[in-house]
Amino acid sequence: VTGAIDLAGNALDIAAESITIAAAAPVTGASDVTLTALASDAATSSGGDVTAQVIVEGDVTATGAVSFDATVTRDVDRTAASNADVTGSSTAQVFVTSTVMAGTFAASATTDGTVGATSTGQNGLLSLDGASIDFDESALVRIGQQPGGAPDAASITADSVALSASTATAYSATGGTAGIGVDGTTEASILGSSVTANAGAIRAMATDSATLTALTNERSIEVSAVVIDIGADITSASTRLDRTVLASAQGSTLAATAGEIALEAGSTVVLSSTAMAEALDDTAGAFGVLDVQGGGTQATNTLLGTITAELVGGSATTTTSGD
Fold first, then answer.
1. DSSP 158-181
2. pLDDT value at 302 more than 90
3. 216-245 per-position pLDDT tens digit
4. 145 DSSP 8-state letter
5. Longest dimension (CA), the chain
6. Extended beta strands in 97-129, E state
7. Can you give the three-state secondary structure of 272-318, one letter per residue?
8. Mean pLDDT over residues 57-71, rounded?
9. Pairing label, strands 104-119, 161-167
10. Which of 232, 257, 251, 222 is nearest to 311 (CA)?
């Protein structure tokens, strides 16, 4: 939206992958304003980068609900007879750098769906063809910051204010070796801005509930003839999640009447790795197996990053009730 809009009491509802309300395009006279950015896969076998975003630089005035939402939903399933590798990113983001006056205000960023990689290996061989996933997954709601990171103060006034960021994608890798690495940020923040709730609460919530599951194939070879040399390598399954989960108000003025001020950051992630051994089966009673070399299994889960809820500088006050 690049020009001013006077809705004369009507509602504004926009849905697209990327939505921008330019600074020179104020929205006035609205009953409700709903901006929904949705990006998704159409059942693809490749990863790639997918972004949904709402950028609000122009002022918005409404008597009812104002809602800015960005959601990325993935549906990635790659299967290969050799190596199955998936790389990409999921980014859902909402940036507000303007004045918003509304009955209620809500902004949310969500990433979810599934990303899978499966290596079927080579039939009849102790193949260590692998499945790997390397992804960045981020959900960002930032009040008072431009997409490039520059500060730009916002002012929000409503009966209640709710910000939420959620990362909830399920990742799975299965193969002779299986590895998953996921990085990113889950953030709901108010930065150098003013937020006022006239009849309710101010809440900023950031939650990571991703699941990472790595599984190696269980392989078996039947020895049915004279075998000179058999080698069984180490099977390895690993997951690594490095996420910053942040709910914050920094250098901002928060004021709530008849409600609380809450900053909440949490994680309920699940990391699971299972490595299965290779088996040699001599049901045929083969003789002459001269050399059998064993391998092993290795399974690791690594959880890194931070989970932080913080109020830094500025002020936070509640009136009548609330904490």
1. ES-EEEEEEE--EEEEEESEEEEE
2. yes
3. 876 555 555 445 444 445 678 999 999 999
4. B
5. 90
6. 99-101, 104-119
7. EEECCCEEEECCCCCCCCCEEECCEEEEEEEEEEEEEEEEECCEEEE
8. 97
9. parallel
10. 251
Nearest to 318 by CA among 172, 170, 161, 183: 161
Residue type, 258: A
Residue that the structure tokens 């058999």 belong to: 230
Token pair, residue 183, equals: 């990085």
Give the β-pairing of 229-231 and 170-175: unpaired
With cut-offs at 50, 70 and 90, classify the pLDDT of residue 124.
very low
CB 240 within 8 A of CB 302: yes
Nearest Cα to 18, choosing from 53, 47, 43? Answer: 53
Query: How far apart are the C-alpha atoms of 126 and 124, rounded to whole Å?
Result: 7
**pLDDT given for residue 298 in this prediction:** 83
What are the beta bridge partners of residue 281? 222
What are 30's two structure tokens? 């609205």
